[in-house]
Structures are given as C-alpha cells and as structure tokens.
C-alpha cells in the first residue's frame, strides 16, 4: 500500500470523521431545492423601484416551481437549476396616489441562459397605471435580474460550502498558519482554537401549522408542551442566555434571543456532532390566513449531518407538534 504522499491521490483514504469519498472525488449530489426557495424569497420580495411617476414594490412570491441541485465529481462542482417564478407587485402613482397591482413572471431561470438574457415578463391588472408598468419593465426588471444573479452567486458559494473537502496537505498548511499567528499574538486573552474549520452548510425549511402564532411560540418555550411533543423530559430556561436540553440530552443549546410570538434564535447542537460545535437556529413565526408559518433558518450544520438535521426537524419537531395540536391532545 502506498505511503502518504505517494501514488494516485484518488485512492488515498484520509483520516476523516465522515471517512468516505475523500475530497468528494466520486460523484456526490446535494438537493438545493428547499434552500433555493428560501433564498429566492429573501432576495426578490421587498424589491422597490421609484421614479417621478410613482413607486412600485414586489410584495409577494406567488409561485416558485422547479428544482436545483449541486453535484461534485473529481473535485469539480456541477450545478443544475430550473425555476418558474411568479411575483406579485403593487405600486402607487405620485400624481393621483392611485394604487395598481400586477405580476412578474420568470418562466425559465436555468443554467441554459445567462441571467441578463433570462425572460422577465411584467403585466398589470386592467385599467390605468401604464406608467407604473413601464417602471417595472425597466428598473424593476433590472433589479429582478440583479437579485437572480445574487441567488446564483449564493448557490455557488454559500450553499456549496464544504462540498469540496480540504486535503490533508491543505489542512496541515492551515494548522501551521494558525499556530504561527497564535505564537505571534502577544495579547491573546483566550486560547486560540487550532485545527481545520468544520465544513458546514445552511438549512432552510418552512412548515404551516393550523394554530395561532402565540400557541406555536408557546410550544417551543413552555417546558410542559416541549415535553409533550418530544415525548421525553426536557430542561428549558426560555430566556436570553438560558439553556435547553431535549430528547434525552441528544439536543442541547442556549437561547440567544427571544422576541415573543415573533422569533427565537438559539445555539443548537446534536450529541453526535463534533465536540463543542454549535449551529445557529432561527425560528420565525409568521401569521398567514388563520394559520402560522414557521420559518427555520439554520447556519453551521456539519455537511455530513445535513440530512439528519432536516429529518430531525421534520419528523421529531414538525410532525410531532402537528400531532400535539390535535384538539383532543392539546386539551388533554
């Protein structure tokens, strides 16, 4: 067997916790669909354009259909995305203060076309307001294409963090640099962590619940309700800096911020993650048509634990909470 540094690097197995598919030489694929929907909403909703005729704003993501993925092979990343997007816009004319509404349709955002060539169709409801429509067709279309470019940039950078893992040589170089920096720091007030940063990924999920915002918020902050949906003892200090422990100690963390009935931000980790590594989990509670949309944004999930993280939230949180919300269960 060849020694380290000798032979074809494709067949060298490096000593990694995840252990397989070194540097993702073999084909691996990651689904970017859910992440993309969240990113597109974030970048497109809220776009504003204004001129002497009036002011327009994209206020709603009406439809986002399609899929996206990223694959790695022989150390190279390959992207696939295909989206059909519909946005709702609204505008007000400056002269008469009349209000108008319309649609923006992007029928084919894909890797087959450059962003600047992507078709963006603007329409409005019948009646006056052509000046606002023209504003959206010019300045609005330009901003939409700019946002689509930001999405593609994020897909190729933010989403793919850690897909091409560092080789042992690179890891050794990073460690050497960090040690030298540590030795040269005269006023270091705390120990410097040495080693290679863990490759991580961001996870975005949304789920609708047939309940009010305050009820859903309580389910995440009241100990008795947490123990009901988790079906296990819990430690819960629902205040800034407070600790929590759930699922027999498999999930632990700390509350960073609590905005009553609006948002919860936590340091969050699973027991089988690398020691002392935490992700940041943000839960946003959004009222919508008599129900509540829960938006989960999580940053810092170890790459090899992404699917476990999604499964944990979908099966152990979302599905169990929906079971708890059944009238007979909650009242009991």
Structure, described:
This protein has 332 residues and is α+β, with helices and mostly antiparallel strands. Helices cover 29% and strands 35% of the residues. It is built from seven helices and 13 strands. It has helices at residues 33-44, 130-156, 168-184, 213-221, 223-230, 306-324, 327-331; strands spanning 28-31, 48-50, 54-73, 76-93, 99-110, 121-124, 200-209, 235-236, 243-246, 251-259, 263-270, 279-288, 291-302. The chain has a seven-stranded antiparallel beta sheet with strand order 7-13-12-11-10-9-8. Strands 1, 2, 3, 4, 5 and 6 form a six-stranded antiparallel beta sheet that branches. Strand 3 (54-73) and strand 4 form a beta hairpin. Helix 1 crosses helix 2 and helix 4 (213-221) crosses helix 5. The longest helix has 27 residues, at 130-156. It is globular and about 60 Å long. The model is unreliable at 1-26, 165-175 and 182-196 (pLDDT under 50).
């Amino acid at each position: 067997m060849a020694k380290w540094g000798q032979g074809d690097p494709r067949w060298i197995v490096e000593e990694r916790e995840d252990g397989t598919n070194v540097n993702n030489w073999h084909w691996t694929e990651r689904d970017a669909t859910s992440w993309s929907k969240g990113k597109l909403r974030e970048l497109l909703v809220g776009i504003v354009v204004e001129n002497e005729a009036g002011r327009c704003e994209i206020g709603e993501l009406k439809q986002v259909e399609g899929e996206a993925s990223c694959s790695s092979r022989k150390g190279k990343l390959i992207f696939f995305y295909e989206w059909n997007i519909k946005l709702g816009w609204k505008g007000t004319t400056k002269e008469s203060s009349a209000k108008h509404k319309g649609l923006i349709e992007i029928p084919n955002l894909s890797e087959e076309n450059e962003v600047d060539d992507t078709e963006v169709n603007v329409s409005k409801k019948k009646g006056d307001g052509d000046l606002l429509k023209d504003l959206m067709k010019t300045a609005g279309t330009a901003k939409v294409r700019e946002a689509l470019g930001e999405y593609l940039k994020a897909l190729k950078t933010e989403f793919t963090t850690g897909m091409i893992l560092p080789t042992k040589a690179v890891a050794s170089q990073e460690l050497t640099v960090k040690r030298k920096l540590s030795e040269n720091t005269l006023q270091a007030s705390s120990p410097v962590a040495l080693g290679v940063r863990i490759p991580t990924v961001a996870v975005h999920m949304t789920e609708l619940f047939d309940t009010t915002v305050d009820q859903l918020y309580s389910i995440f902050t009241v100990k008795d309700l947490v123990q009901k949906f988790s079906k296990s003892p819990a430690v819960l200090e629902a205040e800034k800096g407070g600790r929590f422990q759930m699922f027999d100690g498999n999930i632990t963390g700390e509350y960073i911020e609590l905005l009553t009935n609006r948002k919860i931000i936590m340091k969050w980790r699973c027991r089988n993650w690398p020691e002392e590594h935490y992700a940041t989990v943000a839960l946003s509670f959004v009222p919508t048509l008599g129900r509540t949309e829960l938006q989960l944004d999580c940053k810092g999930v170890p790459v090899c634990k992404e699917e476990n993280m999604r499964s944990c939230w979908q099966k152990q949180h979302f599905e169990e909470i929906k079971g708890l919300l059944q009238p007979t269960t909650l009242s009991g």
